[in-house]
Amino acid sequence: MSVPDSAGRFGPYGGRYVPEALVAALDELTAAYEKAMTDEDFQGEFHRLLRDYAGRPSLLYDATRLSAEIGARVLLKREDLNHTGAHKINNVLGQALLTQRMGKSRVIAETGAGQHGVATATAAALFGLECVVYMGEVDTERQALNVARMRLLGATVVPVTSGSRTLKDAMNEAFRDWVTNVDDTHYVIGSVGGPHPFPVMVRDFASVIGVEAREQCLGLLGRLPDAVIACVGGGSNAMGIFHSFIADESVRLFGFEAGGEGVETGRHAATLTGGSPGVLHGARSYVLQDDDGQTLESHSISAGLDYPGVGPEHAWLHDTGRATYASVTDAEAMAAFELLCRTEGIIPAIETAHALAGAQRVASELGSDAVLLVNLSGRGDKDVATAGRWFGLLGEADAEGPGENLNPDA
Amino acid sequence: MSSGAAFVRARGEDRAALVGYLPAGFPSYDGCVAALRAMVAAGVDIVEVGLPYSDPVIDGPTIQAAADVALRNGTRTTDVLRTVEAVAATGAAVVVMTYWNPVLRYGPERFARDLRAAGGQGLITPDLIPEEAGEWLTASDDNGLDRIFLVAPSSGDGRIASTVAECRGWVYAASTMGVTGARDATSAVAPALVDRVRAATDLPVGVGLGVSNGAQAAEVAAYADGVIVGSAFVRRLLDADSEQAGATSVGELAGELAAGVRRQRSDRR
Ligand SMILES: Cc1ncc(COP(=O)(O)O)c(C=O)c1O
Q1: d(CA B71, CA A336)
Q2: Which of left, alpha, beta for A154 (phi over 0: left; psi -120 to 50: alpha)?
Q3: Which is the most buried residue in A54, A83, A407, B200, by most CB within 10 A?
Q4: Element (H or E) spanning B80, and its range?
């Protein structure tokens, strides 16, 4: 069975659960995207931007000290080294080009961690588009650095105060803007969720990650990896790296969701492992919901994973068993965060740290001969304050540093 | 009985029908039922009971605020059905307006059965388009319920034709591009949209989004078969000091709107 079908359905998932007012815009977008996929000019321009602007191809790094610690060979796909510091720029450059081709002058976006918002603000500056980013108020506080970055780039950041004041509510507000301003506005959805064509389109723009990584693995190892591992919020970095490997049956695919304080506590964002099928934000997929179909609030230390939905293709890969999904708690993710900092000198995004914690688990399952390809989806500059608080470093650093230097006996 | 019959009756009186909305459980279960009864007493023909939902992407701040209150009050899907039953007992036509996920979760077939049993006549589905509505088409057929899909100014003629072909009872024309909320001016594009719907179907056309007073109701009644009012009723309840005062205020607005939908047609004579 080939997925998605022409209506954007991955088995029972996907589709378009949207107000009628948006259907014309989605049809227009689908037509523009389908044309772009085979249009040489578009592809040439997209790949030129990925190379000259975003800095692709991203490196594949053989993380030997991390490998020794976790007991399997780990190859890191360095999306953190892209311009703006995460995988999000790949999708955004594609959608910005489409915006231009559709003759629209304004882009809007939702953002959780702020990485997608920063990427959208960046592309808007590059293309001369007006840009408004919706961000839950809770996230504007925990990712303050990225709010400042977006504003420096000329974007308007709107803190969203409804509901849980996180990514889900930012997305509601972005949909409300879109339905009002759809004539001149493109909604740059930041992950593989939302109504058709977003899940397939965002996956395709992100799939450069897996295309490169597959070639790089073959070049380095002469074979494919045993497992491909990514964190899953909405699921774009995971789909981006999974896509090229789906037909490779020997390669296992693992997605790690945010387990928050533990799935059993109810305070988590593990949609596939702790949710059930439903509709949210335009697509049928898995959703964290109560018995009445009301969306539940998610919880995660990671703003970018703190979302009660997930892209429909992941729901499909989950149900068919092609990919395996599990959850990683805040504490496990932060331990893996520290491990990467200390072994490789790389500060990952807290989102990404979930994939690293997952890799530790996969390593113990597959053994020391296994090669694990891990998507290092983003860098952790934006998370320094959160991590500093988690590890209790902020107050101590001030107290300890000068004290040592001033010690006359030292 | 179909909620379309209320339009036919209004047409027989040479006027537009008046459709009034409130979310169940707002300001409380009883307060909502009292306000809806006051609406009916003052001349609302069709009551739309809203199912309050956590992520109402096509609602503006007023209805969002009401849905928040209703959910914080612990309003359940079964309370929505109880509200339908309480209002249907007045003899008014009652439909439910709901985002799709709560129905999907309840089970479309079971929801349709329980809605029918409560005396409800159909469903308005703001985020369900006919392409995705397979389960609902079946459940509504099985239970003889109206299917009120929406058309919008951005809908092409082809889509209008295919959408109204799946409607039963009446058609909901969203008259502006945007979220729900009272507006000063009614939409200039609405009459053209209604004309395009009429070219595709004989079903009555209700126009919604933005009407808040008798003059606007009269204006819309001049070209539409029904005038749909939501946010303005919610606003009356949000501004009231007590539930009783709220119900009175809702009744007053309904009276003004009911006079409005009668005014234009008689003026035309
Ligand atoms: C670095 C990074 N990784 C992962 C994610 C999660 O998104 P997705 O699952 O779409 O890749 C985010 C989202 O903000 C992010 O910033």
Answers
A1: 39
A2: left
A3: A54
A4: helix B77-88
The residue from B48, B79, B146, B225 that is catalytic is B48
Output the CA torsion sign for B73, B77, B81, B82: negative
In one-letter notation, the amino acid at residue A90 is: N
Three-state secondary structure call for residue A293: coil
State the sign of the Cα–Cα–Cα–Cα dihedral B162, B166, B169, B172. Answer: negative
- Written as six digits, the tokens of B268 are 């035309």
Q: Which amino acid is at A238?
A: A
Spatial separation of the C-alpha atoms in residues B57 and A178, rounded to whole Å: 10
B174, A15: Cβ pair inside 8 Å? no
* A377 Cβ closer than 6 Å to some ligand 1 atom: yes
Instruction: Name the nearest CA neighbour of A149 among A133, A167, A160.
Output: A133
Contact A275/A308 with Cβ under 8 angstroms? yes
User: DSSP string of A215-284?
Assistant: HHHHHHHSS--SEEEEE-SSSHHHHHHHGGGTT-TTSEEEEEEEEET-GGGT--B-HHHH-EEEEETTEE
b/e map of A241-268 (b: 16 or more CB within 10 Å)?
bbbbbbeeeebbbbbbbbbbebbeeebb
Q: What is the mean pLDDT of residues B140-169?
A: 98
DSSP assignment of B13-51 equals: TTS-EEEEEEETTSS-HHHHHHHHHHHHHTT-SEEEEE-
B252 counts as catalytic: no
Put simply, the answer to whether B154 touches A21 (Cβ < 8 Å) is: yes
With CA atoms as reference, report the closest residue to A82 among A63, A56, A62: A56
Which tokens go with A78?
């360095």
Q: How far apart are the first and last CA of chain B?
A: 31
Specify burial of residue A103 (Cβ count, 10 A radius: 0-12, 13-18, 19+): exposed
Pair of tokens at residue B151: 């058309």
- For A215, other C-beta atoms within 10 Å of its C-beta total 13
* Residues of chain B found within 8 Å of residue A16, distances taken between Cβ atoms: 129, 131-132
**Tens-digit pLDDT profile for residues A161-197:** 988 898 999 999 999 999 999 999 999 999 999 999 9
The model's pTM is 0.95
pLDDT at B267: 52
| CA dist list (Å): A226 to A203, A326, A370, A373 | 22, 18, 6, 8
Average pLDDT for A18-39: 97
